[in-house]
Design brief:
Length: 329
């Protein structure tokens, strides 16, 4: 392998995306070279691949914040040729070339060994979306969430939201409300595990008050903005919301009343800089849940990336999209 293909974004002479030929990289100390099998498409990838996304600072760049594959060269003593690995987060696909490439070199510190009961394909069915979903669920369980509590999931037809619904169902939760604007997602989300699927306007009151009726025990919000503003006043005493997205906006207009009168918590969830020692246990949990094959999966190659990116940016994407990088090898 002297050259390989990669999907690249560039801003010279004007912003554009293209399939390019790249030369085999030279490894430095503690780096590994991975033959990529799969990547996936997250909202962050869509932003990285758009001119006004505000994610990429240095061009040209290969997007793709996730990858799974096999080590073919290693200058890190912890990994050897033939090891199956996962990389998510850190600077992958944002400040360092990412998963939309047939081969990629990454620091050994970024690698997580693939769990024995998980395939490379299943790893990218989850990707950052599944990793984030489990972080959200675990965080709320740690605050006291029980399987009989009422849990609301916003943006439920998206990558993170849909995996959250599947995880909650698998864990035995009995009252899962999924919020989605997509009518075509109702049957799918119910099959995935939601007890009810509602459009946001069907669930939220017409007017948001500082304190509303206590009708939610816990919430996982993948949207941010107005929906999170509407959610917080509805949380019951001692409730909590895990926040992991901002597709609906970065602003949060609220009051202190739900926090000081109902003792609620708002928990921020980050998947990019999770300590390395915690990552392996999260991936093992995902493997043990054994739900990857139940999720809505769309599989594409590099040529189809621009179309899927536009679907994500337009809010028309559902479930998880795999990028079959191995198909190009």
């Amino acid at each position: 392998m002297n050259t390989f293909k990669a999907f690249q974004v560039n801003n010279t002479p004007a912003f554009h995306t293209a399939l390019v030929e790249q030369k085999k990289p030279t490894l430095s100390a503690n780096e590994v070279l991975i033959k990529i099998a799969y990547s996936d498409v997250n909202y962050k990838d869509a932003l990285a691949s758009s001119e006004s996304g505000g994610v990429i600072r240095s061009y040209p760049m290969t997007p793709g914040i996730d990858l799974s594959g096999v080590v073919i060269e290693s200058l890190d003593s912890r990994f050897k040729s033939g090891d199956s690995v996962i990389v998510t987060g850190y600077g992958l696909g944002v400040t360092s070339p990412g998963g939309y490439s047939q081969y990629q070199k990454v620091p050994g510190d970024w690698l997580v060994p693939l769990p024995k009961n998980m395939t490379l394909r299943q790893a990218m069915v989850f990707g950052t979306a599944g990793f984030t979903a489990l972080l959200c669920v675990n965080a709320l369980i740690q605050t006291g969430m029980k399987i009989t509590d009422k849990v609301v999931v916003t943006g439920a037809s998206g990558g993170v939201g849909s995996v959250v619904v599947a995880i909650l169902r698998k864990l035995g939760f009995t009252s899962i409300t999924a919020l989605s604007r997509k009518k075509e997602s109702v049957a799918w989300l119910k099959n995935l595990g939601a007890n009810e699927v509602l459009a946001p306007h069907e669930f939220f009151p017409e007017k948001t008050k500082p304190l509303g009726k206590q009708q939610i025990d816990y919430a996982i919000d993948t949207v941010g903005g107005e929906q999170l503003t509407q959610l917080l006043p509805l949380l019951a005493y001692d409730g909590a919301a895990a926040l992991c997205g901002n597709a609906g906006g970065m602003q949060l207009m609220t009051t202190v009343l739900p926090f000081i009168l109902r003792n609620i918590q708002l928990i921020g969830i980050d998947s990019v800089n999770v300590p390395h020692e915690k990552r392996a246990s999260i991936w093992q949990q995902l493997a043990d849940l054994a739900i990857a094959d139940e999720l809505l999966i769309n599989e594409i190659n590099f040529d189809q990336l621009p179309e899927v990116i536009q679907q994500l940016l337009a809010g028309k994407h559902q479930g998880r999209t795999l990028v079959n990088v191995g198909e190009w090898q």
